[in-house]
Amino acid sequence: EATRIRLVSDPTFAKGLGDGAARLIKEEGIIKGFYSGFGPILFKQVPYTMAKFAVQGEAAEKLAAGLGKTT
Asked: The pTM is what?
């Protein structure tokens, strides 16, 4: 993900994902290069995923109830 974002924001960074990953490791190291944005991504992804599962569960129950099935 870090390599893809870097390539989108700077198309001259590398020719592709492989080249971009190699350059990212060389310039920033594995931890800083690939995991520096991990915390912010979790703060975005965890609430989204929780809400998605809650809505999908509720929708499945309503559909099943509407069809006369129990879940």
From this structure: 0.53
Pairwise CA distance, residues 56 & 2, whole Å: 29
Structure-token pair, residue 17? 């994902």
> Please, what is the angle between helix 2-9 and helix 17-28, to 10°?
100
Measure the CA–CA gap between 68 and 5, rounded to whole angstroms. Answer: 47
Contacts of residue 2, Cβ cutoff 8 Å, sequence gap at least 6: 24, 33, 34, 35, 36, 37
The radius of gyration computed from the CA coordinates of the chain, to the nearest angstrom, equals: 20
Q: pLDDT tens digits, the chain, 71 residues: what are they?
A: 889 989 999 999 999 999 999 999 999 998 888 888 888 888 999 999 999 999 999 999 999 998 987 65
